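User: For documentation purposes, I need each entry recorded in a consistent format: the amino acid sequence on its own, followed directly by the corresponding structure tokens. There are two entries in this batch. Please keep commentary to a minimum and don't merge the entries.

Assistant: Recorded as requested. Entry 1:
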Amino acid sequence: MISTLTYLIVLLGTATVVLSVFVAVEFNIHRKRLTGDSKRLTHALQWQLLGEAIIGAGTLGFAMAAHMGFLPDWPVWFQSSLRFIMFAATSMTTVHLYKVVRFLNK
């Protein structure tokens, strides 16, 4: 049962990360044809999706490392660095999206 659940988690996690990156790339392609507010918002959403992909990939990495028994071997500084990168990416892209939406609302 646990191996099936882990397999499903890895599948869903991988699909989520791939989907976030795919949609971010699609937004980038469409952004090049846009102007004005649409271009700004699409750019902010692109970065938001990339931040989501980073935190998703990190979460997936931690889950797989724990399942395979590697996590105890990762030094604390390495685990903390990965968590810092994950949270920094998602918080910076969230703040960026918030600022763009506020700017567009003025």
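Entry 2:
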Amino acid sequence: MAYYTIKAYDADVFLTSFMGLQQAGDGIGADFRYAVEAMNVETPRGVLQPQAKPVTLPYGFDTKIETLAHLYRRWYTGGEDPEVLIAATGGRLYYKTSTMQDFAALSFPLGTAIYQSNEWSWVSYEINPPGSPAPVDVLLMSNAKDGMIIIKPPYTATVSNPSWTVESINTGGKKFGVIERYAERIWGGAIPDDPDMLMYSRPFDPTDWTAAGANEEPEDGAGDVQQPSWDGDSFTALRQFGSQLIAFKGNRVWRVLGADPGEYVFKEQYGGGAPFANTIAVDVERIFMVERDGLALYDGLSVSPYAREAIEKLWKTINRNAMSQMCGTLYKEKYYLSIPTGNNTVNNDMIVFNLSDRTILYYTDTFIESFMPTNDALYATSSSQPGKIMLLTYDSWETGVASGKPTKWVTPWVDLGRKSYNKGGFEVYFSPEVRKYPVTFRVSIQTEKKVKSKLVTVQPTLIRAKQKRVRFGGTGRMFRLIIETLNTQSDVSWRLTGGIQIVVETDPD
């Protein structure tokens, strides 16, 4: 369906709804619903509005939180919320339940005075300790410097030590950079001194990494497998994917099939790998990850590029020397990716891929060290402010709180399919709504000759906003529309509904 109509002496150009960023092609005559440049805006239901402001939680640490983990206590019968947060910062681990005002430090395992790394891989599991009337949910954590630990919450109020405990797990001298649960075993990889090795625990016991004894079947014990690629590559991540385990290397992906050691089969997949483990996110029947040249998708058979042309200009701004800082996650049909741009050595911007309507949004000055989604919230830790934990929100009109950052929306170039026509005498019609305080919009028409801008200040509205008309002179063979707001207060929300109409005078040669 065309986004414009041409009459005898003028034309009507319609922007029916706002979708997101699309930088593929030359930006001339493209779908008018998409922007060639969009910054700090969101487009729920096709409406243009500012990015929602994250909620900063009132917890205080003096050092950066590099890992935020989550334990859901399914077997817990106490009176508080079963969700528990675990934060890694400053060489220590801290926990917080819903009834606690702030985080409390966890004890160290016997023989440990401080952790050497704050970057942990983690998996929830359950055990059956003596004296417990039901299974107990625990958190397993591991990194390549400190090895593997188990965090046990108190399981009844009557046990002799009703407190949280942390214990080291003997994994046969190997330290895992990544761990994952698969076929009722815990698997470990990214071993610094054995990069091609994957190890697995005994079934149903994540604390036992001993091989089967003389009177046991081999599948009853722990073990390891080697999967060399002969090029210096190493395992970077493990993810359970339906009834299989996906083992990622920097340049390759392996699929592990089978339920016990006698059945394990490794199959190399087609395509690239996952050099940046913190960007991997499983979405039911597909896995998202980032390669050096952009986003990639694993569909169970191969790894292929995803949505790269749509952000090709934006991707060129990434600091390629700091790409190891990137992190990504999935939450409510959106893939969030935090990136370092320009000369930044920490993540300072964020791209959001909406997988349901296939739109892309871009946010500047969004400093995120790590993500942690739960059933009801998306947490993030700050890469710029030590100890800061945020709740990421969406839909600033509903929350009533915008980010307060400048916004920008730039349409594709329009030539009406008539390169022989001069276009001029532009009239822009749009319907802004504003809450609480006035907002000033800068509306611009750019031709290949120059940019003309006008400021439109909109007062808060109690009922639906009146339509605004902005008229521009000047002519050109092609033109585009630019809508911007400057820095505003964070509690000011606005939106443009119903799309935009541009009436253009035409004059053929």
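Summary note for entry 2:
The first strand starts at residue 4 and ends at 6.
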